[in-house]
Design a protein that fits this description.
4-stranded antiparallel beta sheet, 33 strands, single chain, 5-stranded antiparallel beta sheet, mainly beta, about 425 residues
Length: about 425
């Protein structure tokens, strides 16, 4: 009853906001970024609200009349002000290869349809209020969100291989470079200063606290075989070399055949990785960096459901894994799941509206308590603790049935709070 009443109130508030011309705030929820149906539509983004327990579809188009995302939207990143949507190509004159939207309202600020050299967009990394690195198949460009200006040419030396995901450490940008290893860019001068050799080249890159890691996987499609190289490798960010590789049964997916986001969901506090190690499989694996323990089928998906690529993320506010699945390529049925860190499903699965969504990634939306400064938003903070508070003010380490205020405390002493319903 409480959930039904709360949902009704939220729906009435949203309706009143729409009537009064007030832009909706897309906070306290999850974005699902979709390739969508290639050849039939542009990329799309759907939004699941924790407050209402409901899904909204094609929210970018909803907020920007006559505009779309680009063609085959594969990646998104956010800072305190903007969300940057990366699509492989522009979608006619309505959507770009890079679309910059307000982080809370999704109102379009700027759209870039083409790059010098015609590169297809892969990923981006917001570094500061004046600098965002944008990786394309023709190299890495530098975008200034304050002036909406894009560099006229890519950073010299970065066009030799397709740059994928990126992370920052020690004043340097580390970029997964397909077939090459890891590009290292000085963020003060925007110059390529090194290319770190990684066995078989890196298939994705990610951070665990201040450590930079790459996944190495020589298998470009399907399940890795006995002859494939499967490793996690830490990067020495001071000396710019790869440390001794850690052999694993199955690392993250290698997207070399068609670029996708494949970096793992990271529990930084416990140094644990969650990921779908093979495209089109029905399980999510878990790897513990501290102990080396590997659980191949940590989460087994419901019968008949599979992962399209790697669509798995960890919400630091709730501590839950967010997973999107589908029923093979001939079906238009897609599902949203939430799992806790024990691998147990939280609540019921959510069947999405029928469509060929082909989800590329999930991204946690800003919380209503999020800081607005970009420097604060991009700071790498670890979660120290998470507690749940019910409407009676009682707190617990486990969520209550009904309405919860999830209070996350970080290692730097700051806190965030978000309302969720179980």
């Amino acid at each position: 009853m409480m959930k039904r009443i709360f949902t009704s109130i939220c729906a009435l508030v949203c309706a009143a906001m729409a009537t009064n011309g007030v832009a909706q705030a897309y906070t306290d929820g999850v974005f699902i970024v979709n390739e969508d149906w290639f050849g039939h539509s542009s990329g799309t983004v759907n939004f699941y609200s924790y407050a209402t327990g409901g899904m909204q579809y094609r929210v970018f188009q909803k907020e920007n009349a006559g505009k779309t995302l680009g063609n085959t939207t594969q990646f998104a990143a956010q800072d305190g002000s903007n969300i940057y949507f990366c699509s492989k190509q522009n979608y006619g004159s309505t959507g770009g290869r890079l679309d910059v939207a307000d982080a809370n309202t999704l109102l379009l600020k700027h759209s870039i349809s083409t790059f010098d050299g015609g590169g297809d967009t892969r990923a981006c990394y917001p570094l500061s209020s004046t600098k965002v690195y944008v990786g394309t198949s023709s190299g890495i460009y530098v975008y200034n969100p304050t002036t909406a200006e894009m560099s006229s040419s890519p950073i010299e030396g970065t066009g030799a291989s397709e740059p994928g995901e990126m992370v920052e450490a020690n004043g340097k940008l580390f970029v997964c470079a397909q077939g090459k290893g890891v590009y290292v860019i000085d963020t003060a001068t925007d110059r390529l200063i090194s290319t770190i050799d990684v066995n078989e080249a890196a298939c994705t890159i990610f951070k665990v606290n201040e450590q930079v890691w790459v996944a190495v996987n020589s298998c470009t499609w399907g399940t890795p075989g006995a002859s494939d190289t499967e490793q996690f490798v830490e990067i020495d960010t001071e000396n710019l070399v790869a440390k001794t590789p850690i052999a694993v049964n199955m690392a993250c997916q290698n997207p070399a055949w068609g670029w996708k986001k494949t970096s793992p969901a990271v529990d930084a506090q416990n140094k644990v990785l969650y990921y779908g190690p093979a495209d089109g499989k029905n399980f999510i694996s878990k790897y513990e960096l501290e102990t080396g323990a590997f659980t191949e089928k940590f989460i087994t998906l419901p019968e008949g459901q599979y992962m399209y690529g790697h669509v798995c993320e960890l919400d630091p506010n709730t501590g839950n894994l967010i997973v999107v699945t589908f029923e093979q390529y001939g079906s238009q049925n897609y599902y949203l799941h939430f799992y806790n860190k024990n691998g147990e499903e939280v609540g019921e699965q959510i069947l999405l509206e029928s469509n060929y969504w082909f989800p590329a990634m999930v991204m946690v939306a800003p919380t209503s308590q999020s800081p607005t400064g970009i420097e604060e938003a991009t700071a790498h903070k670890s979660v120290a603790s998470v507690k749940y508070v019910n409407l009676a003010g009682v707190s617990s380490s486990e969520p209550f049935s009904g309405v919860n205020i999830v209070v996350t405390t970080y290692t730097d002493g700051t806190q965030s709070a978000v309302k969720v319903i179980k």
